[in-house]
Amino acid sequence: MGRFDIILRIISGPILIPQIVYDELKRIENSSNRPLKWILEKMDSAIKKKTVEVVDFEIGSPEFAEFKKLTSPPMPIGEGEAMAIAFAKSNNGILASNNLKDIQRFVTAGDILNITSDDLLCLFYKKYKGETTPEEIESIRETMRLFGRRISPDSFYELLSKFQLDKRLFSDE
Predict the structure, then answer these.
(1) Would you write out the chain's pLDDT as a tens digit for each of its 173 residues?
(2) What's the CATH number for 4-115?
(3) Where in the chain is the domain with CATH 3.40.50?
(4) What DSSP designation does 32 have?
(5) Are 70 and 80 in contact (CB under 8 A)?
(6) pTM for this prediction
(7) CA 12 to CA 84: how far, in whole Å?
(8) Does 14 sit behind a cis peptide bond, omega within 30 degrees of 0 on the bond before it?
């Protein structure tokens, strides 16, 4: 089923998954009629190989302070997004999120750089053209839509024509 390997091949640095997000995936997998078992198995395997790390913050840390600010009124956002933003800001990292509604004000303000699933797929296609086709990428995107992922309504060809992300940030090139 899924292509978790795409993330592992594109992102060159450490991949940090907030504990809250990992716990949420576990909870959804245990209660949903659309199981996420495959992604949790791939993620657990990557955690064992130390290519992915589940992270939490200490009370009183800069990440905790940022998390509290982001989850408090007047404009609170979800805990998973808030924790991911807090870690991205504290570590000068990149946020990977399709939840543009919650994160857009931080990306627009220049606080963090965000990469979406569509960005990752464009990067993967450009870097590994001989290994995949636009039709295969479109099939991946369609599967993501079926599982409720927020994916652009544009075709993959349209996305490629507009793609402007600096791929040096995400690869060893």
Answers:
(1) 568 888 888 887 789 999 998 998 888 777 765 556 777 888 899 999 999 999 998 999 999 999 999 999 998 998 999 999 999 888 888 888 888 888 888 777 767 888 899 999 999 998 888 888 999 999 999 988 887 888 899 999 999 888 875 544 554 44
(2) 3.40.50
(3) 4-115
(4) -
(5) no
(6) 0.81
(7) 18
(8) no
